[in-house]
User: Which sequence fits this backbone?
């Protein structure tokens, strides 16, 4: 309920006259007096149930969320003197389901086993953008009406020209509009999306005598990442570093259909060659602990003593060739999700610990 | 009174207070107008003389030397000059977009072209704001008019770059204050309209004082406006006007002359001197606004000198153009350096030398040398070229021979119009090398494709006479059309 109007603010610049430093001021944004908060309407329907004396509990939720007046740093033409303007710009819908199942599989004096499964599925769609605009292109990403946010936009590659064809060794791109040329305006298409088809988490907790073991798996399926690192490392222009993929490059004796020949001064191109499936299954957390038995504690002042060893991110199954399929979703803007460009990966870690209660 | 009753009435009071607060919260401000005290806003600015000066200073900053790789401080080299037959990208250039510019393989998505367009329009926006807002400030009328004319000079220079590089471009003359589509989507205008605007701005700027000295040394002057205008007319092939305007500069009350020593044109000690009509000002160790061209031209591998070494002359073509007695050769190129750490002399194939300063040898990026944008020698050559085109060499010999004499070369005589024309083109190349004129000269004389093919840049073709409009601008602005040959 609290709104502010946005003023133009200033940045300082230095220049020199007679070798003395002078200061200049200029506005660093265009003011937007119509700025307001985002509005979300949400419909929810759900079921919570427990069966078998609550040994199996289930919650299920289906939702439809519509966010309008989306706050977006909308790119604007440089001819305005600025690059972006914060505006309420568009309507985005998210619909999906969330499912949680908890089961108490085994419950005896000595051994307990519970399982908890969460599953969520979300479908995002850009319902409209401001001012009747149909799309916003931001680098390799596009926000297009009717598609999900985080779509990638570029050329579609269909192999490599071989000896005897037009330009042997260079990449063949699909001529979408059939005009015989490969152009930015005519031949770019949506080549993938950063949003996952579903996310799932599975936790298993075991208790045996004084031991406890917790294993947490986390999975994301269907999300894609634009591997910009590869775009740079597979330039093959002789002026910068290349990955070992360069060993597979096209030569007349190695007629590869996926790696082009080196080409001096090739400019970086956005194409589906760098859009990769970043679905993954990760052993996110595993903890094994041992609590000292009550008899041993009676003689001490401690209320409780537990040793544990734990590990995070120790196992990842993924086809993604970059360092980490999960980093791409950290700290990305609404418009350019899922881009991996030198992002620092999540690390494996191991801990040993001791809990003591006095 | 019993304890229970007190408690009940107390609870009732609390309940009513809660209700009141809730109601209050619901009906309170829907829109809260904050006036943050720690930031400046446009409604508080543009009120005093200092504000006006600061507004114009910011145009110089954005349009000439922004800190980092910007405008005249290397961006124009990366996005314009490196395409020419004077320069290539050395092996140390790792930026694929710069390499693509040098090899003429760039596309509409090249980020150097994008950056150059962007910086021009950012600076133009600042000029528009100054021109719109300063006239209503209550201050000394002479200073007020001078500041507006400085802004117009800079705007003229910026649009002159845009029209030469991109041809038809959007003309934006006022501050953009609204985000609605009609304000931010501007279609491009015909080349002639852009030139008309440039000529209007520069004609107004001719009223600037003839001389800006003391604390104002480096600001635009009336002489700078006339000199730039003569160049505009030359580019448009309006020879008579170009010659007349150049003569106004040569004979005017500006005190312009050639330095006796060619190296004085570039040395930091003689900056903003009698030959400098207008230069981009650089200063060491302030916000990255030292002369970076020095670092990018200096070779690497010399102990104690932290250079980038990424700008290389096209060799041997450029070095061999100079005859051995041409005094300009060893100011334009160097072939050896003394290491500040071990005192040894290191030799290397010729590299550009104009901006390297011995006072910042260990850190060439911070060179204090200015970057000339127009200087007197060029005005003499503009005069010579224009007169020759209009009526043959005749009175053009004096002008070109003044430049040649300073260079230690023999005067020219007895040439026909065609040979004189070629002599002027060559003289321009020798005199102004690495000062961002070569590419512009190649495209205005229609020699770009043959010249580039002659030195091995065989990708050059007709379409490269104009830069492509950045793809981003085309994507974001439905009213903007790409240049024909780039579609």
Assistant:
């Amino acid at each position: 309920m609290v709104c502010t109007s946005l003023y133009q603010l200033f940045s300082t610049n230095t220049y020199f006259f007679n070798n003395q430093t002078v200061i200049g001021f200029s506005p660093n944004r265009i003011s937007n007096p119509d700025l307001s908060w985002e509005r979300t309407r949400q419909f929810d329907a759900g079921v919570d149930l427990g069966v078998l004396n609550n040994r199996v509990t289930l919650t299920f939720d289906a939702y439809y969320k519509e966010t309008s007046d989306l706050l977006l740093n909308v790119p604007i033409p440089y001819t305005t003197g600025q690059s972006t303007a914060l505006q309420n710009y568009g309507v985005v819908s998210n619909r999906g389901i969330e499912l949680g199942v908890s089961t108490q599989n085994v419950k005896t004096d000595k051994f307990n086993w519970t399982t908890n499964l969460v599953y969520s599925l979300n479908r995002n769609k850009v319902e409209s953008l401001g001012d009747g605009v149909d799309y916003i292109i931001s680098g390799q990403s596009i926000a297009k009406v009717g598609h999900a946010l985080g779509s990638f936009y570029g050329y579609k590659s269909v192999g490599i020209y071989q000896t005897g064809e037009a330009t042997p060794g260079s990449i063949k791109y699909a001529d979408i509009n059939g005009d015989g040329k490969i152009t930015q305006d005519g031949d770019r298409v949506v080549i993938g999306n950063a949003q996952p088809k579903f996310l799932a988490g599975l936790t298993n907790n075991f208790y045996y005598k004084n031991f406890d073991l917790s294993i947490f798996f986390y999975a994301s399926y269907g999300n894609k990442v634009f591997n910009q690192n590869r775009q740079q490392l597979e330039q093959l222009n002789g002026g910068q570093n290349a990955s070992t993929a360069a060993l597979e490059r096209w030569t007349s004796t190695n007629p590869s259909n996926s790696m082009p020949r080196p080409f001096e001064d090739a400019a970086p191109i956005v194409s589906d060659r760098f859009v990769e499936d970043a679905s993954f299954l990760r052993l996110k957390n595993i903890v094994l602990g041992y609590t000292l038995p009550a008899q041993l504690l009676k003689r001490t002042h401690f209320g409780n003593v537990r040793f544990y060893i734990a590990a995070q991110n120790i196992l990842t199954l993924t086809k993604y060739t970059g360092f980490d399929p999960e980093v791409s979703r950290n700290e990305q803007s609404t418009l350019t999700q899922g881009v991996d460009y030198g992002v620092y990966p999540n690390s494996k870690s191991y801990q040993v610990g001791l809990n003591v209660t006095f | 009174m019993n304890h229970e009753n007190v408690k009940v009435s107390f609870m009732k009071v609390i309940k009513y207070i809660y209700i009141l607060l809730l109601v209050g919260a619901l009906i309170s401000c829907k829109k809260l107008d904050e006036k943050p005290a720690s930031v400046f806003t446009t409604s508080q600015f543009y009120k005093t003389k200092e504000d006006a000066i600061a507004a114009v200073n910011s145009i110089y900053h954005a349009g000439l030397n922004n800190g980092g790789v910007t405008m005249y401080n290397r961006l124009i080299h990366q996005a314009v000059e490196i395409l020419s037959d004077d320069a290539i990208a050395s092996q140390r250039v790792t930026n694929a977009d710069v390499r693509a510019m040098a090899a003429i393989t760039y596309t509409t998505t090249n980020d150097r072209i994008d950056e150059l367009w962007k910086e021009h329009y950012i600076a133009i926006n600042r000029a528009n704001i100054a021109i719109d807002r300063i006239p209503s400030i209550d201050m000394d009328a002479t200073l007020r008019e001078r500041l507006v004319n400085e802004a117009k000079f800079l705007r003229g220079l910026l649009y002159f770059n845009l029209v030469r590089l991109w041809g038809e471009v959007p003309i934006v003359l006022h501050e953009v204050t609204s985000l609605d589509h009609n304000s931010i989507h501007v279609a491009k205008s015909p080349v002639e309209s852009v030139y008309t605007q440039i000529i209007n701005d520069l004609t107004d700027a001719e009223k600037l004082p003839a001389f800006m000295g003391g604390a104002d040394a480096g600001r635009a002057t009336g002489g700078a406006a006339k000199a730039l205008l003569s160049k505009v007319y030359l580019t448009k092939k309006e020879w008579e006007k170009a010659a007349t305007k150049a003569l106004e500069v040569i004979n005017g009350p500006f005190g312009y002359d050639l330095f006796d020593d060619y190296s004085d044109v570039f040395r930091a000690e003689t900056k903003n001197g009698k030959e400098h009509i207008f230069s981009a000002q650089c200063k060491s160790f302030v916000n990255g606004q030292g002369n970076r061209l020095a670092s990018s031209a200096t070779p690497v591998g010399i102990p104690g000198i932290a250079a980038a070494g990424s700008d290389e002359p096209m060799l041997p073509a450029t070095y061999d153009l100079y005859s051995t007695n041409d005094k300009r050769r060893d100011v334009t190129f160097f072939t050896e350096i003394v290491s500040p750490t071990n005192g040894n002399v290191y030799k290397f194939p010729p590299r550009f030398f104009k901006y390297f300063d011995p006072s910042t040898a260990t850190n060439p990026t911070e060179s204090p040398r200015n970057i000339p944008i127009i200087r007197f020698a060029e005005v003499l050559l503009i005069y010579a070229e224009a007169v020759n085109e209009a009526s043959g060499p005749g009175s053009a010999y004096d002008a070109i021979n003044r430049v040649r004499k300073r260079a230690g070369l023999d005067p020219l005589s007895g040439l026909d119009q065609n040979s004189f024309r070629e002599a002027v083109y060559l003289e321009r190349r020798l005199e102004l090398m690495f000062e961002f004129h070569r590419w512009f000269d190649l495209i205005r004389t229609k020699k770009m494709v043959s010249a580039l093919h002659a030195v091995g840049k065989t990708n050059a073709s007709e379409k490269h006479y104009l830069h492509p409009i950045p793809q981003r601008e085309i994507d974001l602005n439905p009213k903007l059309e790409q240049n024909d040959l780039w579609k």
User: Anything to note?
Assistant: Chain B has a mean pLDDT of 91.
